[in-house]
Amino acid sequence: MKIIIEKNYEDVSKTAGKIISDEVRKNPTIVLGLATGSTPMGAYKELIRMHKEEELDFSKVKTFNLDEYLGLDGNNPSSYRYFMDENLFNHINIDKNNTHVPDGKAVNPEEYCKLYDKYIEEAGGIDIQILGVGENGHIAFNEPDNSLSIGTSIEDLTEDTIKVNSRFFDSLEEVPKKAISMGIGSILKARKIILLANGTRKAEAIKNILKCDRISTQNPASFLLLHPDFTLIIDEEAYGKSK
Ligand code: GLP
Question: Which of 43, 62, 104, 225 would be 16's cystine partner, CB 3.0–4.6 Å?
Fold first, then answer.
């Protein structure tokens, strides 16, 4: 694991944006694994800026997102598809046909999960996977549990996650209780993994990665420690409890 500690969120975002853009310039047909949530928004802003000011070209880039709420379609402002369009795709020259967010309205969700892993494989696999982390150590929607899914699957959200994520909905009741999520195995197949975290809210989850000497399904992020090319980019507040 490599760790980069930045002063604040702005610097975390700039560093992440720079790493991603360098890779896109090196390989214009790159496959990016993308995440939603407040954490990667700054990095996406950087990518948009570089597209507008520095000719960063996304015309041949493919993307796969980690997860989507089950039951929400892409026109729903709380869906992850909507989030990605609003916060990245609508502002860069990417072909929307090359962007993939799990389909929350899939007719046969179980079958669809298998297809999603197949689509990733057919695209040649993910070159760089961007991740955030939940306050409870979840990655994508792989919540702490007695076992974790290897491939993409339907996951139950914990009460804590429902509460934390309710800020993106009009009320707590509106938060879906299930999601389609890439599995730990799908995530670990990426060639390079970058996890971003900022703020005191994430300090405990980061400590549980940095101080971890035994992986545990109760700490899903701990599995990332098995990956040969895993980089943590965090700010001083998120690093706070690990000092
Ligand atoms: C959600 C997503 C995760 C994300 C996490 C953290 O539950 N499924 O992929 O990493 O929350 O979100 P935030 O960046 O808003 O703190």
Answer: 43
- Pocket residue to mutate for ligand 1, from 67, 87, 133, 209, most atoms within 8 A of Cβ: 133
In this prediction the pTM is 0.97
The length of the chain in residues reads 243
Nearest-CA residue for ligand 1 atom 2 is 140
Residue 111 among the catalytic residues: no
Q: What is the pLDDT of residue 188?
A: 98
Strand partners, 180: 68, 154
Q: Write down the domain spans for the chain.
A: 2-240
Q: How far is CA 133 from CA 29, 107, 139, in A?
A: 27, 29, 5
Q: What is the pLDDT of residues 207-225, one digit of tens each?
A: 999 999 999 999 999 999 9
Q: What is the mean pLDDT of residues 106-128?
A: 98
CA–CA distance, 117 with 210 (Å, rounded to integer): 29
* Pocket lining for ligand 1, CB < 6 angstroms: 35-39, 66-67, 132-134, 140-141, 161, 165
Residue range 2-240, CATH number = 3.40.50.1360
Q: Which atom of ligand 1 is nearest to the CA of 67?
A: 8
